[in-house]
């Protein structure tokens, strides 16, 4: 009997979602549709320039890995999350958010360090695309010191956020987590996270994957960029060298899955998308719930597509707690 179903590691970021126009992005010099790392000064400049947009802004505990682990927790998994926050108001908010979502974290997270908790400005355009400018803050210092070996060894799955590749110490922590998990018989999953991470840190991601993970999550653009191919089918073939199973999300077209033996295409419900922020994170959280509960691979993919479709049809990277149970109704 495992104490935890899922152990995750990733950046701790306070998300602020803002509705903007394509013209706003051009004026601000923000690259559309990707995550861009910025320093605190640049982020504050963006906040100042968008002051009139902040009236309806929403603040939430975020970071890709946290979104996935929180979703898995709300679906019913026992979860644990390693991250790094500072001794500031945002750090307090972040810990409280994890606790309210039922996510356990290392006791060391209570003794936060000085510095600034990471922040992410998520700019949503009318076509539902999200463009993120992230100041990692103290998350850039996340390291092997934040790993909890006891909790990891007591888990069924370990989940690694691909964004960690942009930090030398974060990348080292991700590699150490994978190696410890594999040495202890804990299954491993990793998300490629963002096309920009694949473009700028492809070699680092391959180092994080090592000899292969049990489950790899990516979207179409990430799959093509990572494998340096020009079609989803070619990417699907190439990805098999890096993992024992995978899910390539395809937006409104659903997802392409491979369970190690058989390939599946699963459809996504038709919805009106207004905010794509968090869709891939939710897909991973729902999918990991499904395979932890021994759902057939394709059924886990169908649940994940339903959950991701629900996320993009409303604002914010996560669902309300009660929505997770409603999504499970067709499969329980």
TrEMBL record:
List each copy of the Carbohydrate kinase PfkB domain by range.
49-319
InterPro entries associated with the record:
Carb_kinase_PfkB-like, Carboh/pur_kinase_PfkB_CS, PfkB_dom, Ribokinase-like
UniProt cross-references to Gene3D superfamilies, sorted A to Z = 3.30.1110.10, 3.40.1190.20
What GO MF terms are annotated?
Answer: kinase activity
Signal sequence coordinates: none
| Keywords (A to Z) from UniProt | Kinase, Transferase
Q: Name one Pfam family in it.
A: PfkB
Q: Which domain of life is it from?
A: Bacteria
SUPFAM superfamilies the UniProt entry points to: Ribokinase-like (SSF53613)
- Assigned protein family: Belongs to the carbohydrate kinase PfkB family.
Q: Which PANTHER family match?
A: CARBOHYDRATE KINASE PFKB DOMAIN-CONTAINING PROTEIN (PTHR43320:SF3), SUGAR KINASE (PTHR43320)
Q: What is this protein called?
A: Adenosine kinase
Q: Which organism is it from?
A: Microbulbifer taiwanensis
Recall the taxonomic lineage recorded for the source organism.
Bacteria, Pseudomonadati, Pseudomonadota, Gammaproteobacteria, Cellvibrionales
